[in-house]
Amino acid sequence: MFLDKLKARGWFELFANTQMGCSQPDVAEFYASVSISEGVLLSTVKGVLIEVDARALGVILGVPAIGFDLYVREDKSLLGKARLLELAQHLSQQPGLKNP
Fold first, then answer.
1. Taking CA 43 as the corner, what is the angle to CA 38 and CA 45, rounded to the nearest 5 degrees?
2. In a domain, 46, yes or no
3. How many structural domains is the chain composed of?
4. Shortest CA distance to 40 belongs to which of 75, 78, 76, 72?
5. Has residue 90 been placed in a domain?
6. Regarding predicted confidence, which is higher, 7 or 73?
7. Which tens digit of pLDDT belongs to each residue from 57-90?
8. Which tops the pLDDT comparison, 1 or 19?
9. CB of 26 within 8 A of CB of 47?
10. For residue 28, what are the CA distances in angstroms to 7, 23, 90?
11. What is the pLDDT of residues 20-41, one digit of tens each?
12. C-alpha distances in angstroms, 100 versus 6, 32, 68, 82?
C-alpha cells in the first residue's frame, strides 16, 4: 500500500532510485537544524545555509510539490480542533493527550 501511495503521489522514483546516494551524517545535520517558516524551508549543513520553498524543493527532488503548503502551514485551524487533537495524539503516541 505504501508503494501504491508513493506512485500515486509521483514520488516512487525518489525512493526507488538506488543510484541516488546521500551522506547519513549530512542528512542528520539537515534534519537537526531544519525549520519551516512562511512556506520556506531553512536548514544548515556544514555551515552552508539551505533555503528553499516547496516548488523549488519539488524541482530539486523531482517530485510534485502541489499541496505541500497545506502540510506545513502554521495555521492548522483548517483541520478542526478534534482532528488536530487526534493527529497530535497519534503522532506523539500519547493517546491521553488533551491539547494538540
1. 165
2. yes
3. 2
4. 72
5. yes
6. 7
7. 788 777 787 777 666 666 667 778 888 888 888 8
8. 1
9. no
10. 26, 9, 24
11. 666 778 878 888 888 878 778 8
12. 28, 22, 21, 9
pTM: 0.46
Burial pattern 24-42, b for ≥16 Cβ within 10 A else e, equals: eeeeeebeeeeebeeeebe
Whether 96 is in a domain gets the answer yes
In-domain check, residue 71: no
Residues 56 and 82 in one domain: no
Residues 23, 48 within the same domain: yes
Domain containing 19 equals 2-66
- Chain position carrying cell 552552508: 48
Q: How wide is the angle at C-alpha 72 spanned by C-alphas 78 and 7, nearest 5°?
A: 100
Does one domain contain both 60 and 87?
no
- What is the number of other CB atoms lying within 10 angstroms of the CB of residue 86? 15
